[in-house]
Amino acid sequence: MTKRILILTMSSKQRKYCVAGLDVDNNQFIRLVDNRYPESNGITTTQMMDPSGKFAKILDLVSVTKLTPAPTPIQPENYTISSATTFKIEVKLSPNFLSTLIQRCPVVNSNSILGNKSFKIAAKEANKLNHSIELLYVQQLVSYINEAGRIKADFRYNEIMYRNFTVTDPDIFFEPVDADAAYIVVSLGELNNKRKIGEHYKFVAKIFVVDGASV
């Protein structure tokens, strides 16, 4: 199966990348995974090299071959790549396109983010969702490092303040954000059972600061 994908995230995931984007032919989100690496399901930049030797990057529109649907109850957008998968970069889009793109994305509940108003969601509630990726326009976004050394973000979405979201966008690791407005991609992670309480955490996988909105 071949998909034309606008890449929106290349977030850090155990020394690999969680790559997600929008299928431009059906306006549905898609997440690329490699089940050969079960510890992360992430993929590498080398796997995303096109025939010209260039590596696919954020906001590249790429044609990706040899994909296999691999939905999970929590992440129905997943498609697996294989050793035969190829990437071909078609065009690079401008961040200015995001204001148009968000109109094409699947409709989300404007009163919550991935099921509720928290940075995490109980497994039984997550199982009621039919998606795990959202592209949102937010305001008053600030990233920071918490006491545990993790990069977090607070932001306002539809007049509600959201706090303590973990950021996995590698571009933010070295350049904190303090912006009046931004587009963000939020992704729902797999089950976290470290505390034996069955929760899924939400990750800010990409931050696109709106031009002129940085403080």
Summarize this, please?
The chain is mainly beta and 215 residues long. The chain has 2 domains: 3-93, Beta Barrel (OB fold (Dihydrolipoamide Acetyltransferase, E2P)), CATH 2.40.50; 108-209. The chain contains 2 helices and 13 strands.
Distinctive features:
OB fold (Dihydrolipoamide Acetyltransferase, E2P); about 220 residues; about 45% strand; five-stranded mixed barrel; 13 strands; mainly beta; 2 domains; seven-stranded mixed sheet
Bin the helical content.
under 10%
Mean pLDDT: 90
Amino-to-carboxy terminus distance? 44 Å
Number of continuous helical runs: 2
Secondary structure elements and their pairing?
Layout: E1 3-13, E2 16-23, E3 28-33, E4 60-64, E5 68-69, E6 78-80, E7 87-92, H1 98-104, E8 120-122, H2 123-126, E9 133-145, E10 151-157, E11 160-167, E12 178-192, E13 199-209
Parallel strand pairs: 3-6, 11-13
Antiparallel strand pairs: 1-2, 1-4, 2-3, 4-7, 5-6, 8-13, 9-10, 9-12, 10-11, 12-13
Describe the 3D structure.
The structure is a single chain. The protein is mainly beta and 215 residues long. The model has no long low-confidence stretch (mean pLDDT 90). It folds into two domains: 3-93, OB fold (Dihydrolipoamide Acetyltransferase, E2P) (Beta Barrel); 108-209. The strands form two sheets. A seven-stranded mixed β-sheet has the order 5-6-3-2-1-4-7, with no helix packed on it. It has a five-stranded mixed beta barrel with strand order 9-10-11-13-12. It contains two helices and 13 strands. A hairpin with a 2-residue loop joins strand 1 and strand 2.
